[in-house]
Amino acid sequence: MAYSAVSKKTGKTFYLHSKEVTLKGGRQQRIYFFASAVKEGAVDALPPGYAIGENSKTGLPILKKAS
């Protein structure tokens, strides 16, 4: 089951996904993002050292480093 977060502002559920991307310099990097449906690349748990936040204007969840 994909990791999910519910928006406090809109009440919608979003699911955490990850993907390997190639940056302009050719370096590979893993990115994390939330989507409204479970798709390819869904993640079962938060990556270590990260916490969930929420954009105050849009209500979309964001992943940020835990302090």
Tell me what the structure shows:
The protein has one domain. It is built from no helices and five strands. Strand 1 (4-6) and strand 2 (13-22) form a beta hairpin. The mean pLDDT is 94. With 67 residues, the chain is mostly beta strands. The chain is 0% helix and 46% strand. It has a three-stranded antiparallel beta sheet, with no helix packed on it. The chain has a two-stranded antiparallel ribbon with strand order 4-5.
Strand content: over 45%
What kind of sheet is the major sheet? 3 strands, antiparallel
Measure the end-to-end span: 27 Å
| Mean residue pLDDT | 94
Give a short overview.
By secondary structure, this protein is mainly beta. Helix content is 0%, strand content 46%.
List keywords for this structure.
single chain; 67 residues; mainly beta; three-stranded antiparallel β-sheet; two-stranded antiparallel sheet; 46% strand
Write the layout of secondary structure elements.
Blueprint: E1 4-6, E2 13-22, E3 28-35, E4 50-54, E5 61-65
Antiparallel strand pairs: 1-2, 2-3, 4-5
